[in-house]
Amino acid sequence: MINITGIGWIGPQKYGCLMRRYSRSKTDIKSLYSKLRQESILLDDIKNFGRFDDVSKFTCCAAGLALYDAKRTHPFNSKDNVGLIGTNTNGCLESNLRYFQDYIKSGRTLARGNLFTYTLPSSPMADAAIYLGLKGPLLYMGFQQKQVSSLLQQAKIMIQSNEAEAMLAVKADQEKAICFICEKNPGVSSENMFILQDIIQITDRRLHLQELIAALEKNSLRKQQ
User: Fold this and answer.
1) 177-184/2-10 β-pairing
2) Most CB within 10 Å of its CB: which of 45, 49, 91, 125?
């Protein structure tokens, strides 16, 4: 059986994680990163964080929150085959446009050195995987509809086919993100996890992040009663 052991999320005004029933307010991604470091939710500095595009920043922070939610003081054993799959609506389009606009402003010669060129939609996943030391498969997938449930379904398929022991599944864009840790036979009590298929059914009926978080929190409270 595949379970979800941690869920971290970041909205326009708040961020948190589900199992710990932890929620805080935020202003911007820079201050959020500082808070996560101060509270040791992110255990180490993220190299070149200031140069990341917003999708990469949200992906890394949401993954850190999910790991904190799963009560992992260290992400995974260095030999574990743990992968990361991500999705969003526009891939790296916004980052490419931002880079090109900066190139135009710089006289069509060079863009500023403090901007990375994100030419692949998998770049945010790569940033997070490098930071977390993940060794498993990494990919971006675009879905026309039901992005979160489709993302989780694909993570499930990869674990069932033994492509990975666990998968981090992240949906992140320029303003918000949510990350799920999916594991087969995790070494935690049933009180601290959800059956993956149950979460897929919940996410299948909800499109907006806050509506999804509210439904997951309601399900969590019902489970604890």
Assistant:
1) antiparallel
2) 125
What whole-number distance in Å separates Cα of residue 26 and Cα of residue 73? 23
Task: Round to whole Å and give the CA distance between 61 and 39.
Answer: 13
Its CATH class, for the domain covering 2-224, is alpha beta
Indicate the pTM of the whole model: 0.86
**CA–CA separation, 72 vs 63, rounded Å?**
12
How confident is the model over 71-123, as pLDDT tens digits? 876 666 667 899 999 998 776 656 666 666 666 676 656 555 555 556 677 88
Tens digits of residue pLDDT in 147-199: 899 999 999 999 999 999 999 999 998 889 999 999 987 665 556 788 899 89
* DSSP codes, the chain: -EEEEEEEEE-SSEEEETTTTEEEE-S-HHHHHHHHHHTTSS-S--TTGGGS-HHHHHHHHHHHHHHHHTT-SSSS-TTS-EEEEEE-SSTTHHHHHHHHHHHHHTTTT---TT-----STTHHHHHHHHHHT--S-EEE---SS-HHHHHHHHHHHHHHTTS-SEEEEEEE-SS-EEEEEEEES-SS-GGG-EEHHHHHHHHHT--SHHHHHHHHHHHHHHHH-
Domain limits of the chain?
2-224
